[in-house]
Recover the amino acids of this structure.
């Protein structure tokens, strides 16, 4: 504000030299100018606050989700490299700052050996994000993928995942529709026929092979097969783009 006042008096001095008549107008308008700048400051603070609030809620959801993933791994009893690669893939795919991703890594790894209260976590999720069913589906599918990577050998893990689905009321829309949810919505590697531990060269090789195999132009004389190939081609492209983003591949 002091700089604004100094600027005002500088303009006042210049105006006095060139046009004394405008001095009166400036004195009249000055209070309105101050009000305008104040309102602009309030708007800036308001919108910044809203954005920060939205981002913090998103991060809080992910934090709670990774606590549940850690809980599942503690139930499974063993943690495989493939499971950790999958969690690593999820975190790197999130639209968060590097600091936020690093914090999620720390939260997840430190929680694996802790006996976190799953009911408390689920209650917080349900209370705070009940309007975001898509968030719950993402979490549910992620838990199923972690369990799949273990080989579906732990009955307690299966019960835990089912309990999460029931607690978050996924069954209200027909739980059967979620029981066999397509894990590919969070696993682009499976679209390319790869595992999470695949090297960059293996990813590129698989992508090029599938693009050639399912390119729609190969089926120009067969509209039915061309449509099917086009659908697969789009999924392949989408999966490859997600992996490239996660790995910073070019």
């Amino acid at each position: 504000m002091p700089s604004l006042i100094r600027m005002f008096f500088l303009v006042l001095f210049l105006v006095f030299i060139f046009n004394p008549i405008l001095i009166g107008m400036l004195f009249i308008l000055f209070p309105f100018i101050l009000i305008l700048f104040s309102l602009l400051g309030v708007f800036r603070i308001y919108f910044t606050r809203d954005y920060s609030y939205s981002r913090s809620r998103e991060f809080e959801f992910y934090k709670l989700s990774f606590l549940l993933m850690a809980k599942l791994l503690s139930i499974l009893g063993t943690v495989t490299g493939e499971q950790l690669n999958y969690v690593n893939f999820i975190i790197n795919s999130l639209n968060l700052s590097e600091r936020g991703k690093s914090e999620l890594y720390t939260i997840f790894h430190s929680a694996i050996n802790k006996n976190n209260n799953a009911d408390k976590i689920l209650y917080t999720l349900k209370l705070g994000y009940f309007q975001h069913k898509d968030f719950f589906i993402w979490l549910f599918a992620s838990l199923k993928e972690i369990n799949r990577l273990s080989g579906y050998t732990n009955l307690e893990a299966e019960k835990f995942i089912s309990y999460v689905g029931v607690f978050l009321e996924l069954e209200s829309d027909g739980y059967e529709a979620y029981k066999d949810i397509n894990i590919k919505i969070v696993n682009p590697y499976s679209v390319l026929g790869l595992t999470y531990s695949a090297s960059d060269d293996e990813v590129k090789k698989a992508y090029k092979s599938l693009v050639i195999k399912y390119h729609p132009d190969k089926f120009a004389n067969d509209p039915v097969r061309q449509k099917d190939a086009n659908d697969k081609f789009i999924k392949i492209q989408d999966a490859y783009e997600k992996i490239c983003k996660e790995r910073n591949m070019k």
